[in-house]
Amino acid sequence: MAAPGETRQETASVRNEFALERYRYILQQIHAVNENAHRFLTLYQTLATALVSAALLLFVGYQKWDLAPDTARGGVIGLLALVTVVAAFTSILIVVGALNWLDYRNEECDITDEFVGPAFRKRPRPGNFLRWYETYVLLFILVSVITMWLIAALFLLPAMR
């Protein structure tokens, strides 16, 4: 039979091992969240390029294909609407990823506060969003969608008569 001191020591050892494994998991999840933002940007760039290329191809070839201008305009608008949906979906995934990152970082700070010492790691501050690359990815997506719509509204659609 184990002495009472040994039981407490074993419990503390198991607790420390569990905390270490949880800490490793949190660090792995933080890394995955960071990588996902790049994947989402790649997804947006690929789909937006394909859809805008299709819209430009429609603009250039609608007369050769004997399409009515209204049909071609509707196709260009539909393709830009799809780009907008892809942009919105990508933006939502990036925002959710940033919120997950905040949760994981706070949990990381909780573990290090308890096992290493208070304030070992500074807690993330949402006010630092200007330093997050996700902010600039979202700005890129927003600016690119607005630019696509403006180019279509000012140049492509009026030329399809």
Automatic annotation (TrEMBL):
<keyword id="KW-0472">Membrane</keyword>
<keyword id="KW-0812">Transmembrane</keyword>
<keyword id="KW-1133">Transmembrane helix</keyword>
<feature type="transmembrane region" description="Helical">
    <location>
        <begin position="74"/>
        <end position="98"/>
    </location>
</feature>
<feature type="transmembrane region" description="Helical">
    <location>
        <begin position="43"/>
        <end position="62"/>
    </location>
</feature>
<feature type="transmembrane region" description="Helical">
    <location>
        <begin position="136"/>
        <end position="157"/>
    </location>
</feature>
<protein>
    <submittedName>
        <fullName>Uncharacterized protein</fullName>
    </submittedName>
</protein>
